[in-house]
Amino acid sequence: MQAKLDSLDVKILEAVGTHGPRNLRLLSTKLGMKRGTVWKRVKRLSSRFFLELHVNPYHTNLGLKKAIVLAWANPGKESLLFDSLFVNDFRNFISRCYGVREGCFGVYVVPNNHIPEFKEFLHTIEELGLTRDLQIIWSTCFQNVNPTQNWFDAETESWTTSWDNWVEEVGNEGTELPYTLVDPESFTNKADYIDIFIIKELEKDAAISFVDIAKKLGVNRQNVERHYRDHILKRGLLESVQVMISPFDRRGTSEPLFFHFRFNDETQMAKFALSLLDKPFVHFLGKVLGEKALVAYTHFLSKKDFRGFTNALSKLVNRGVLQDYNYVFIDLERRARETIRHDFFKNGSWIYDHSRHMQSLRDIVTNGSEVETKGQRSLKVSPT
Q1: Torsions phi, psi of 375, nearest 5?
Q2: pLDDT tens-digit profile of 203-240?
Q3: What pTM value is reported for the model?
Q4: How confident is the model at residue 254 (pLDDT cuts 50, 70, 90)?
Q5: pLDDT tens-digit series, residues 46-60
Q6: Which domains, ranges and CATH numbers included, belong to the chain?
Q7: Are the beta carbons of 250 and 270 closer than 8 angstroms?
Q8: With helix as H, strand as E and coil as C, how does the chain read?
Q9: Mean pLDDT, range 331-352, rounded to an integer
Q10: pLDDT band per the 50, 70, 90 thresholds, residue 353
Q11: What is the pLDDT of residue 370?
């Protein structure tokens, strides 16, 4: 029999997402439970539901600008398109995608002073005949959405959906967006090398000990603690803890989807965004820079719920909340995910090797062979 989350599991997941996994005493106090009980539950979630805990860097304060790339492949060039997008060192996540056509979906975190070179890199992919249509969406950092007790029925120990209630809820939300969904004034790097290295390790495992990080860095634990406390936290270099878990039976459910929403005004955009920050089918939200538009990465409980969501969107369009939207299906059969690239950070600035990226593109087209996507790892729900 397939394991199922119960209400206590969901309560613990919500607490971990809010307070982080590093302080078990704080978690147990907030939950009103013994530390041993909390620890056993977390271990159970890790073994039965593949729970992973990561941090999301606040890339804006690291001098990095987030780009979402949607590229539709010319027929027969699907694999070469993936390989070409992969060679850029500042990839965060790449996967195949499909919708009207076959293509690739990518998230990049690009040094703000190298935006022109990145655009040239993508334009060259077009010139080489790998794609018939390529779109860049510049976004704020992503607002992570972790599991909460909302839409979880404690009596039946199962997730529920109420699309009509959600439509009404949108109209009753406030209008103050979290800082992650507000256009930043600048993209200024506030980190040093040790900060970047620590963040990279926390991206892989948010519960890793400072002792282990210190060993990898070759410094003492106190140095790591000082950088975490006085730099990473005080300078706002982290956005949140990301709770990655498979609470649903994925067999027969819809694929993950990337949505692009456009709105008539900023007030309606804010209400819509705030209504999604506790919903189990949303993994992250981002705001398109300079536009009344949002992006979202979603994974629905079932194909029926996907249709329930699109029907609800239709109602919101008719009410004047939403102007329009589109989506693509994310295919996780082939994907690659990267942590922040500490190996391309030196003397307080990012190293963007544009000439190597361009040469790699031409080599791929000439050789017609797939690159080795080192470091690929399973992604339960989404990129970040």
Answers
A1: 80, 10
A2: 999 999 999 999 999 999 999 999 999 999 999 999 99
A3: 0.91
A4: low
A5: 888 888 899 999 999
A6: 1-49 (1.10.10.10), 56-191+235-384 (3.30.70.3460), 192-234 (1.10.10)
A7: no
A8: CCCCCCHHHHHHHHHHHHHCCCCHHHHHHHHCCCHHHHHHHHHHHHHHHCCEEEEEECHHHECEEEEEEEEEECCCCHHHHHHHHHCCCCEEEEEEEECCCEEEEEEEEEEHHHHHHHHHHHHHHHHCCCEEEEEEEEECCCEECCCCCCCEECCCCEECCCHHHHHHHHHHCCCCCCHHHCCCCCCCECCCHHHHHHHHHHHHCCCCCHHHHHHHHCCCHHHHHHHHHHHHHCCCCEEEEEEECCCCCCCCCCCCEEEEEEECCHHHHHHHHHHCCCCCCEEEEEEECCCCEEEEEECCCCHHHHHHHHHHHHHHHHCCCEEEEEEEEEEEEEEEECCCCHHHEECCEECCCHHHHHHHHHHHHHHCCCCCCCCCCCCCCCCC
A9: 94
A10: very high
A11: 52
Chain length of the chain: 384
For residue 122, the one-letter residue type is L
Q: Which amino acid is located at 309 in the chain?
A: F
- Retrieve residue 178's tokens: 């979290």
